[in-house]
Amino acid sequence: MRNIRRPIRFRTKDNMANRGTAQRPNGQTQGKICQFKLVLLGESAVGKSSLVLRFVKGQFHEYQESTIGAAFLTQTVCLDDTTVKFEIWDTAGQERYHSLAPMYYRGAQAAIVVYDITNQDTFVRATTWVKELQRQASPNIVIALAGNKADLANKRVVECDEAQAYADENGLLFMETSAKTAMNVNDIFLAIAKKLPKNEQAGNGGSSGQGRRLAEAEGQKATAGNCCK
Fold first, then answer.
1. Digit-coded pLDDT (tens) for 91-149
2. What CA–CA distance (Å, rounded) separates 171 from 177?
3. In what order do the strands lie in the sheet with 70-78?
4. How far apart are CA 42 and CA 127, in angstroms?
5. Residue 196 half-sphere exposure, CB side, CA atoms within 13 Å?
6. Cα 10 to Cα 26: distance, rounded to the nearest angstrom
7. Cα(182)–Cα(173) distance, integer angstroms
């Protein structure tokens, strides 16, 4: 019987080092993944849900139903060597849900406060949300101010310079956005991702599945209690 010699495969150090390491499509090794909790706040009908829908799914609906309690979505942003995963809480803007807001921004590493550039009252309300976050949210929370509906600039009542000056005074990121045209939507989330710390502790700071279920359950109970008021 003839002996069949099988080829010997050598495991190199490079092969061993790359085992279990994810690869990007271009062949580069994928860096670490950081997870962050982000909350959207603002008056009803300023376009919070539309901004999230545009960012997460690339879609825009002319007539968006009002959020009840809060909606939860996720999306990732890729930086140079880090993938940032946002756990996004889109909160309802109606006054009767205001008491639920701390449940959603508690433990958040980032927040986007949204106003409508065609409505001065929503800007005033946005400044109130900023003060509440600065007083009650995490000390190092990254806050962005978004002047939404920039596609309606011909109906503008809140000047860009006014909002920029307010943002500068309070250490906020600021952009005018349009969920309809996608103007600056991805950019504002990217700017937040760049400003967030990428250390290991921050990367594990997102809300867990258990915490998410608890928040949803509490929101449902609170919603049920307010439905007839």
1. 986 776 788 899 999 999 999 999 999 999 999 999 999 999 999 999 999 999 999 99
2. 19
3. 70-78, 82-91, 32-42, 110-116, 142-148, 173-176
4. 9
5. 36
6. 26
7. 18
Looking at residue 29, what DSSP letter applies?
A: B
- Which pLDDT band holds residue 67 (cuts at 50, 70, 90)? low
Taking Cα atoms as reference points, which of 33, 71, 51, 37 lies closest to residue 141?
A: 37
**Please, are residues 36 and 109 in contact by the beta-carbon 8 Å criterion?**
yes
Give the pairing type, strands 32-42 and 82-91.
parallel
Q: What is the DSSP string of 174-192?
A: EEE-BTTTTBTHHHHHHHH
Q: Residue 195, Cβ neighbours under 10 Å: how many?
A: 13
User: Position of tokens 């449940």?
Assistant: 103
- The pair of structure tokens assigned to 71 is 């909606």
Question: CB neighbours (10 Å) of residue 162?
Answer: 12
Cβ 128 vs Cβ 159: under 8 Å = no
Tokens linked to 118:
């065609």
- What angle (nearest 5°) sits at the alpha carbon of residue 40, between those of residues 36 and 110? 35
Straight-line distance from the first to the last Cα atom of the chain, in angstroms, rounded to the nearest whole number: 90
Q: Are 112 and 146 in contact (CB under 8 A)?
A: yes
